[in-house]
Design goal:
The protein has 256 residues and is mostly beta strands. It is built from 2 helices and 13 strands. Strand 1 and strand 2 form a beta hairpin.
């Protein structure tokens, strides 16, 4: 998989550029029983193209005035992406993808941050969208608590909110604080829904999740953290009848 993006600054905080997406799949098999977003005998799974070359190009428009790209405490990011995949580019599939992502960071008090994120993704095709290109709920970056791909379809709407409370302050001198000053905590909640047609979206069907975690500050200048999160899916049947999925995450950097 190769997905480069090249941007050029056209106004203060505003960027425009081109992007491409290239992925070749071989010896790849879909196990329908592992997909719980619809019944295993659905044509969306069994008739969707799987192997082959996916090749597309498009553009990106980005507005970004965040004070820090790694771990901002204030600012806004708004990103629009449009990509088209066609036979004239060597692609085995013909479809288009449009997405809009919004992030807002609010400095509520001291170094505390309320981070908000919203995402809408739409995919259109007369031939069918390949399985690997479908919008997917879950994973360590978005809607933590669900395994990535538990729910997937052509379109998706999602949101997430996280409150970040760092303990560290460089002006503290006590020996005890020297040990704990790099520790922070967070709490988060999110939800997403996937749907096959735009008219099918129902806010009452959102798959919700919530959790919390610890942050260990690595570099005060860049505000880079080690992220340790635990999340639980709030949908009772997300891991089978009467069972909820859970996730433990250990990564470098914030989820968003």
């Amino acid at each position: 998989k190769f997905s480069p993006v090249v941007l050029r600054k056209i106004r203060p905080n505003l960027y425009f550029g081109l992007q491409s997406d290239l992925e070749y799949l071989f010896n790849y098999r879909v196990i329908p029983e592992q997909y719980t977003f619809i019944s295993p005998d659905s044509s969306l799974i069994n008739d969707a193209p799987v192997e082959g070359l996916r090749s597309g190009v498009g553009f990106q428009l980005l507005y970004d005035n965040r004070n820090n790209m790694i771990n901002p405490i204030r600012g806004t990011m708004l990103e629009f992406n449009s990509r088209y995949y066609g036979k004239w580019m060597g692609s085995d599939y013909t479809f288009s993808v449009y997405s809009l992502e919004f992030r807002q960071y609010i400095n509520t008090w001291s170094n505390h941050t309320l981070a908000l994120r919203g995402l809408a993704s739409l995919e259109y095709s007369k031939e069918g969208v390949p399985i690997r290109a479908l919008s997917r709920v879950g994973g360590h970056k978005f809607i933590r608590g669900y395994f990535k791909g538990t729910y997937q379809d052509r379109h998706m709407m999602a949101f997430e909110a996280e409150y970040r409370l760092p303990f560290w302050k460089e002006d503290q001198k006590s020996k005890l604080w020297q040990v704990w000053k790099r520790i922070g905590v967070v709490g988060f909640v999110g939800g997403a829904e996937v749907f096959h047609e735009a008219r099918q979206i129902q806010l009452s069907e959102f798959n919700l999740a919530a959790g919390g975690g610890l942050r260990i500050l690595l570099n005060p200048k860049s505000r880079s953290n080690i992220r340790i999160d635990y999340a639980i899916a709030l949908r009772n049947d997300s891991d089978g009848p009467g069972k909820r999925q859970r996730g433990f995450y250990f990564f470098l950097g914030e989820a968003f």
